[in-house]
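User:
Hi there, any thoughts?
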Amino acid sequence: MKNFIQKGDSITVTAPADVSSGDGVLVDALFGVASGDALTGADVVLATTGVFDLPKVTADDLTFGKRAYWNAGTGEVTATVSSNKLIGVAVVAAGAGAATVAVRLNGSF
């Protein structure tokens, strides 16, 4: 196909804040996991698909298959919809008290 650009598994963006490798990064509706460290305003490559262990709101209960949302204010996965952005689904149950959850990213929504 002559109009194909790339698979989209990774996208280079301008870091909206200082990020470290493995951090969740939200740029408008695009969520990904930083593949390296970057200072605010520098380019950083985000993995937009795959399964990642991400920090979560410890009070939340995310069962297998439950929608996972990103709380940009706290930098954590949450089960709360509110103004949070849908980033994927939990692929391992992580009950209240768990600090992280394995999330399968679905690219941007």
Remarks:
- The first strand starts at residue 10 and ends at 14.
- Residues 10-106 form one domain.
- Strands lie at 10-14, 24-27, 30-34, 43-47, 49-55, 67-71, 76-78, 85-90, 100-106.
- The chain has no helices and nine strands.
